[in-house]
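Input/output pair, single chain:
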Amino acid sequence: MTDTTIPQPELRPNCPNFSSGPTAKFPGWSLDKINTIAMGRSHRSATGKGRLKYAIDLSRELLGIPDDYLIGIVPASDTGAMELAMWNMLGARPVTVAAWESFGNVWIQDAVSQLKPAGLTVLDADYGQIPDLSQIDPGDDVVFTYNGTTSGAKIPNTDWISDARDGVTINDATSAIFAQPMDWSKLDATTYSWQKVMGSEAGHGMLILSPRAVARIENHNPDWPLPKIFRVKKGDKVDRAIFDGATINTPSLLATEDYIASLEWAKSVGGLSELHARADRNAQTVFDWIEATPWIRNMVDDPAKRTNTGVCMVFQGDWYDGLSDDNKAAVPAKIAGMLDEMDIGYDFNGYRDAPPSLRIWCGSTVEQEDVARLLPWIEWAYAQVKAELS
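Output:
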């Protein structure tokens, strides 16, 4: 049975990539934008190391990272960077791990099941919510996710982090760092990956360390063993070479060049402020549509906590509420699958562990017009699915 009351839209997104990671390439991306000077060269050569250092320097410039913070390229994407920070820094003080979606829960499991530090506190919340961060003891080390990639909930600010804290903050910022403001004075270890907001190739993580974080690593020897890819000390000091273009293991120089190309694009369009503005405009397009669409709502109730990157939405209304659980789960999957097959929009079904939902990536590399063109297609597909399941 087909619902013919909603005509099929005519305009299609020029770029149908709405995945929350890896995210869309920057507008105008093509393989000929990739510098090949380091291809086939050793990452330890002057050329290879120079390109790695250039990626670090561009990151510092674009993000406004203080000069006394260290920036390193480390293995295994944001996961590797986060676990490197946790394995090196935790265990010296009580720890609070705060999470409100799937990736934050990974850090909880790392702490609870693997590291098991003394004085561990877990703060968690359901999808779309954020726990009360003001209750965190400033004497604790804190592990948290800045932006909930799979729930669409972000922290509205870092005012809850004390300037007089005794602990360190370890911040997974991978889906926020190029789209939301970072107060570097509050952040001691910050991590992200290239494939998130900038849409670059995966496999490498970025680790940003404040002087406080460096001091913790140098003055603390954890009780647990450190795998080679987590070792950032030479003797009792942080190995500064890792933060000057050397790497712990062999990096992909092709992926490095792709990341460099995305950073150079970001500079060309106006830098960090324009990246923020692009994400804000994209997200507002979706927010306005959600407000005007009675059968869907933002997964995050509090507007101050709604992300401007991976906007998550859940279904509502008498028809949807009356479906079986299996059919409720089928609604977003069918919508996303239908539009994927039609090459209208790729990879915008909700995360597998989240409530049945849609998740549209609105980060800086996505064009606002493409977001606007996707939404009528979702309405059309919803009508087809509703007719099918009724």
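The first strand starts at residue 70 and ends at 75. The chain has nine helices and twelve strands.
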